[in-house]
Amino acid sequence: MNRQIAISLAAVLALSASEVSYAHSLKKQGEAVQVADSNMTVTPSRDWNRLSGKVGKQTESWTLDGEQLNDVTFFGGIEPGKPLVKERSKKHDPLPKFTETTLLVEVPELLEGTYRTYKELAAFTLGASAPAKFLGRDGVRFAYEFTDRDGLTRKGEAYAVIVDKRLYMTAFDAPRLYYYDRAIAEFRALTDSARL
Amino acid sequence: MIAKPIVLGLGLAALALGSPTLAAPAPLPAPYKGVYQPQGVDEIGMWREDDESERRLAASPLVLRDEKLTSYVKGVLCEAVGNDRCNAARVYILREPSFNATMSPNGTMRVYTGLLLRVRSEAELAAVLGHEFGHFEHRHGVNGFKSARGATDVLAWAQVLASMSSSYDVRRSYQNLELSVYGSFFRYKRDQEREADLTGLGYLNASQLQPQAASAVWKNLMGEAEASARVRGLKKPNFNAIAFTASHPPDGERATYLSELALPEGASRGDGADRYRAALKPWLPQFLEEQIKLNDFGGSDYLIERLAEDGWTPELWFARGELFRTRGNQRDLANAADFYTKAIEANSNLAPAYRGLGLSLLKLGRTADGQKALRTYLQLSPAASDAGMIKLMVPGGTAQ
């Protein structure tokens, strides 16, 4: 009996040990870290939580209070021909792709199409887009707003740049009420700290 | 389709048995019994939840707040089901891009913008809304709930009993029972759908609108699904197969029996297509944009071409240009440039068409022409939300 308990305990420990690598992790203030399986690094100006789940191959999500409350997504060099996030079904629900001919001015549309298709939304509005520096290069900054199926309206802001035919982007969205204003400055600081 | 030898008195009964082949048109609806109040704990509970859900809905940002369009849609419902009945419904138009409408037990009717984009006349809209009203009038919500609860109750007890026996045979019988209970549950749901179809058509037969439109709705949907699958390289959908868990009858069957049940004399009635187009006109560009950005090339192109059967408008040319530019193959860009040009020919002030044209031409390597179009875009729309980005692509960087 004791032996059985010991074996079960060992199994539980083994399971929890293997889960450690999947757990959320803390990104500490002031420590530069690589994000989204890419050469992009950021140096957070305060502690952030990295979420264990990934929406796409070269993506990584960070949050302060929780995924639905403030959500920063890094896109670390999306290759031409690839979608921004992983497709549920390549055949049945394909997502719009970033291509070699995608212009910087079209990146907001690409994000819009991805959100609409992935979440089956009709309520999505692109806001202003303007030239902005990102990763030390000429990029685009744009705003957006959408109402998700939970009936909550979220505001978003993103910075994107195309380097060597690859798309690098940081996007932040949070409920319009309270959470967006609360964390937007932190997001901008994070984006400013991004290097390639 | 196999014809049943015995045709039961009312089409309704035959439909409930799953036989869609009928000679007689759908019957006139019975006299309206007036607003009903919930009966029994289940229904009272459902209404309470429903009232709460409607309270949230009324404040939801997903509701399209256009009184004129909402009262128009309500008017079409009234036209279909009659004024006494339609007072029981409160209509909300929801910003959802899919083809759907629902009506819940307390009388909340939700109409999706994706449905408004897909139907093309008052008669088609009335067919769908009448169907939903049929669910409401037959109290399908509470009956469906009871049926689901009955099915899961049976299975829960059966599982308890099966777990008490160690015999493999007993467990296998449980699995067979499970299949059969779920099978009959989903069949029950499909029968409810057929009953609502029949009731909806009964309203339409009794209205001033063309009842043949009900069948057209399903034919259009099949056309769209086929176009969508073709472009995605998928197999042609089978419109006559029933999946085990399907909650609705197959589209092919619906199109056929709805056509057979429509009152033949009704074919000469108007379908209100002109009025429908006029009511939808202010919203059509937005609904099209929402559709195009769903990344369903085949389905979207089918919808645009169907709308263009009544004549190409600048908005439709523009939408087609956007669709092709979004997919973005070189041949698509050449086509997109052509469609934008047609939009501009028909309306030389359509600023977004110059933007699309400019971007397409730039990508085609026709830089000078592209920049010229972008300059016009900036002139027509100097305060455009992306003006800053566009200026970067035009030499001189200004809107002059």
Automatic annotation (TrEMBL), chain A:
Protein name according to UniProt: Uncharacterized protein
Domain of life of the source: Bacteria
Residues spanning the signal sequence: 1-23
Keywords noted in UniProt: Signal
Taxonomic source organism: Tsuneonella aeria
UniProtKB/TrEMBL annotation, chain B:
Gene Ontology terms describing biological process: proteolysis involved in protein catabolic process
Keyword Acyltransferase: no
Signal peptide: 1-23
GO cellular component: a single term: membrane
UniProt cofactor note: Binds 1 zinc ion per subunit.
Keyword Ubl conjugation listed: no
MF (Gene Ontology): metal ion binding; metalloendopeptidase activity
Positions of the Peptidase M48 domain: 67-261
Tree of life domain: Bacteria
CC cofactor: Zn(2+)
Keywords of the record: Hydrolase, Metal-binding, Metalloprotease, Protease, Signal, Zinc
Pfam families: Peptidase_M48
Similarity field: Belongs to the peptidase M48 family.
Name of protein: M48 family metalloprotease
High-level lineage: Bacteria, Pseudomonadati, Pseudomonadota, Alphaproteobacteria, Sphingomonadales
